[in-house]
Amino acid sequence: MKKSIILFILFAIIFTSCAPKYEVEVQTERDKKNKQFKDGNGSPIPYDDRPNFTGLDYFPIDSSYYAVAMLTLAQDVKEITLKTTQGKDRRFKMYAKADFKLKDKPFSLNIYKAIEDGDGFTVLFTDLTSGKTSYEVGRYIDVEINGLRAILDFNRAYNPYCIYDKKYDCPIPPNGSNLNIEVNAGEKIYKK
User: Fold this and answer.
1) What's this model's pTM, rounded to 2 decimal places?
2) 89-102 and 66-83 as β-strands: parallel, antiparallel, unpaired?
3) Cβ pair 155, 62 in contact under 8 A
4) Which end of the chain, N or C, is less surrounded by CB atoms within 10 Å?
5) 25: which DSSP letter?
6) What is the C-alpha separation between 111 and 130, in angstroms, rounded?
7) What's the CA gap between 139 and 123, in Å, rounded?
8) What residues pair up with 96 in beta bridges, in sequence order?
9) H-helix or E-strand containing 17?
10) Helices 19-39 and 2-17 sit at what angle, rounded to 10 degrees?
11) Where are the domains of the chain?
12) Digit-coded pLDDT (tens) for 87-146
């Protein structure tokens, strides 16, 4: 027990000392994404809307929304079906349950892996900002996994493409993916 507390304190000290570098890194990613959405091939912003696109709206970068989660791997990597914004089914594998803290409160979210496309791990979630300052359908986080730990960086939470253009069909976070807290981090709701 004492060893885990010492490790946690050590991690907090190291992360705090790296905070300015972290903020620059996140801001650089945001700037790159805005440029790609305005000018890049594969942008989800409809072509006719791009000339007026001035960038996505984000919550301020706040390192308290960077969480290290402990994982409980799924005993059988079970396939599940999630509904999409167009009412279709999308298949995922439930990889693990992630237990973490935000603002000193404990939370859990499931980590999924898409079957049809992609090779990364994703968390789909809603929170108390959903439908107010963030997208009502929910947001996603790409997850870095290292053994039985994962990084859930809510400053990198992003909107699914269906918020930009209804032609996209996006998975909806399932029941049990709601955080009973305002996650004032990551992308805000998109407004043209």
Assistant:
1) 0.86
2) antiparallel
3) yes
4) N
5) H
6) 19
7) 8
8) 73, 111
9) helix 2-17
10) 60
11) 2-163
12) 999 999 999 999 999 999 999 999 998 887 667 899 999 999 999 999 999 999 999 899
